[in-house]
Structures are given as C-alpha cells and as structure tokens.
Fold:
Amino acid sequence: MDQGLRKEKVNKWYHAYSNDLYRYILLMIGDRDQAKDILQDTFLRAYDKLESFDGENARSWLFRIARNLTIDYIRKKKPIAYFIDSPSLIKATDKNPEQLMALNEAERDIHSALRNIKRTYRDVIILRKIKEFSISESARILGWSENKVKITLFRGMKALRKELEKEGYGHETI
Structure:
C-alpha cells in the first residue's frame, strides 16, 4: 500500500476512534498527558504495522495496540495512580443536578474499586462493560480465548462487587 493511502486510512481511523481510545487509555492509567502520548503512539504504531492489519475490525485492532502500549507504560512506571481525573464511566443522559451528584459519587466509588482489583479483571470490565465490546472483540483485543473473557469477566465483576461492598457501596445492579 502506498504511503498516501496508508496515511489516509490511519487518518480516517484517528477521526473515528481517537476519542474512544483516549478514554480507554485514560481509564487504564489516569494521566491525561500520558494518555495523549500513548494515543499518538497507537496511531504511529498502526501506521507502521498497517501491513499486519487483517482487514476485519479496525477498532478492535487499534484497541489491542493501545492496550499493549498502555501495559508497556504501566510496567515501566510501577507503581502508578490509576483513574485520577478519568472521564465518566456512566454515559451522559438528561439528569437533574441531584441525580448527577449521585452519579459522580457512584463513579468515584467505581473508580476506587477498579483501582483495587487485578489488572486483568480491570481490562475485561472496561472493555466489556464500559466500552461495550463484544466477547469476540474483547478476546481479540486481549489476545485471549472467548471463554477466558467470559470467565475473567465473571470473576472480575465478582471482585468489583466485593470491593464496592468493602467500600460501603451497596448497589444492586453491579
């Protein structure tokens, strides 16, 4: 593929997926500036490795690149404070101020609980429950089998519930 076409394709992906990727990276590391750097690195890596793209699902492929770069950053940066200043976990809808206050408190509880569970649990919960990837897309991104995604999600949700209960948050839908 010639350089112009490569550039055009990656640019199109950037406009389509950069906001989602940025939020995902930010949820994983909690550092806005570093998340922007990793996002940029994600698209540079996509440009460099475009010949390895199988053509199936660009979004999943980009999330996998972003996840790998984020994990590399986390490994180099231990320990790191996760989820500081991270964006909302709960989708914005028309809520009154009291409902928004309750949501913000719930989000803080969820962020805090997510910080305290295993990274694999956090990865799969963010992909499946927050970013709403399918089981097969999540498996591709994580490099796992679909069965491992299901099992890890089940265990992760159980661990998240336990953390939330430990922090005094009793929400029946978690």
Q: What stands out?
A: Residues 79-95 have pLDDT under 50 and may be disordered.
